[in-house]
Request: fold
Amino acid sequence: MSRKIIHCDADCFYAAVEIRDNPALAGRPIAVGGATGRGVVATCSYEARAFGVRSAMPVSEALRLCPHLELLPTDMPRYQAVSREFMAILRETSPILEPLSLDEAYLDVTGIDHFQGSATRMAEHIRTRVRDELGITVSAGVAPNKFLAKIASDWHKPDGLCVITPEEVADFVPRLPVTTLHGVGPRTAEKLHGLGIKTCGDLRQWSELALRERFGRYGARLYGLARGEDDRPVQVTRPRKSISVENTYSQDLATLAECRRALEGLVSDLERRMRRKGLDSADAGQFEKLFVKLRFSDFETHTREMVWRRPEHPGAADFTPLLDTLYGDVPRPVRLLGLGVRLPEVRRGGRQLTLFDAGGRPVPPSSQGQQRYRGDEQGGQGQGDEGTPSPDEAAGEDV
Ligand code: DCP
Ligand code: MG
Reply:
């Protein structure tokens, strides 16, 4: 039987909360973040986007593009509170809920009878409730699987709903650029483009065998995605024990100095990944350990970790001693570097303590001591979503 998946993603989430709480900001170009901290835009209103301002952009660049941009400091506790209410509304629609970040989640509504089982009406109901009860807007996508539901929620953003019925999949998918596929980051995109493959339609000209030959196991996944196929289930509970990123370098890093420089890029990737998982600087005190992984060109691989008890996110300098120890005194070419943070065990003392409670609602920090996390990564490698990792996922890119 065909499944019914809804993907919901709030519009300019942090900015929307700010505007809701100060309506004088409505209709104006505003950005959140940057006023304090790392100096980058966390998000911005759609009015600011019209000037080219984007998430993760340095504030200096944002102000160059939009000189009258208003900057607001981030207020994570407030966004987390709205997120809890948002997830509670979703959870009332279906218990099969997989939060991806503070403002984004998948819902499997296949077995839900409300609205005569119409996923479209359920999605409209969610959007109306969130607007009326929380004062922010949410875009939603309805489709037979996660891949298409996520693309659909972006299709009519902001404040939009897009439905892709099983009958529409065959027409919809061929025109999608391959860059929209789950697991295709810059590296895989470059390889696909090099083969003359720009859209899913182009990809469909390739046999599964030919894709496997070029992309290994991920080739089979590409073959299915190009046909709109994606059987990943909506995951209600998945323990997350670490968040990490790693990179295999196209040219080996020849010296320890080069490895140290590479750490900086990896730390930025890790920050980005943590933000996407909804972990802000207030969570830093919850990390248990830092670790670095190093693979030499002869594939000898080592990992080293250390306890982290400080109340801030680790920077490149914090990972350097681990790297130095792993590298040793004799210069050797390095093909892969990775790093990450380990989170506390999700089960301790028989009670499951998580970011989300059993009903899928995020748990307030005050009620959960040190045990806060249950997200969408498993084990120590943090290779993104489930399914066959693509070369880009293995490189720790966002998927
Ligand atoms: N965020 C961040 N840094 C980023 C990206 C996002 O701090 N590089 C934060 C701010 C966003 C929130 O996460 O409000 C949700 O991220 P989204 O990617 O869903 O972006 P928005 O909700 O802001 O905008 P959109 O309307 O495109 O979903
Ligand atoms: Mg959003």
User: Anything to note?
Assistant: Residues 242-394 form a domain with the Dna Ligase; domain 1 fold (CATH 3.30.1490.100). Confidence is low (pLDDT under 50) at residues 346-387, 395-399. The CA atoms of residues 330 and 357 lie 49 Å apart. The longest helix spans residues 256-276.
